[in-house]
Design brief:
By secondary structure, the chain is mainly alpha-helical. It contains 4 helices and no strands. The chain starts with 6 loop residues before the first helix and ends in an 11-residue tail after the last helix.
Length: 110
């Protein structure tokens, strides 16, 4: 489609959109004291981040998940702040990938 010229463009868009939403949901769950849903959402974010190679986001999401499951909400708020900062780094890097031209098959070296 014109909006997503490549699969990478679509994946980057989806990841950024979903992660932005996930971070808001994580904060909301923490405010409500809903550690069960917080752990589930963090686990999902861990998976999507790992799939796309955002390894620091994956590790932070894993730490949030573990803290929520162990009932340690006091350590979650600082982790969420780190995740928000790391997301901005990941988002910028992924957006930069979207601006790269698609290589032509004839330019590939054999």
């Amino acid at each position: 489609s014109a909006e997503f010229p490549t699969m990478l463009d679509k994946l980057v868009y989806m990841y950024i959109t979903e992660t932005r939403l996930a971070l808001k949901e994580l904060s909301s769950c923490l405010e409500k004291g809903d550690l069960e849903h917080l752990a589930i959402r963090a686990h999902n974010l861990k998976g999507s981040s790992g799939t796309l190679g955002a390894n620091r986001m994956k590790c932070l999401a894993d730490e949030v998940c573990k803290a929520a499951r162990s009932g340690g909400p006091e350590s979650i708020a600082p982790l969420l702040k780190f995740m928000e900062s790391e997301f901005e780094v990941v988002r910028a890097r992924m957006e930069a990938l979207r601006t790269l031209p698609t290589p032509k098959a004839s330019s590939a070296r054999t």
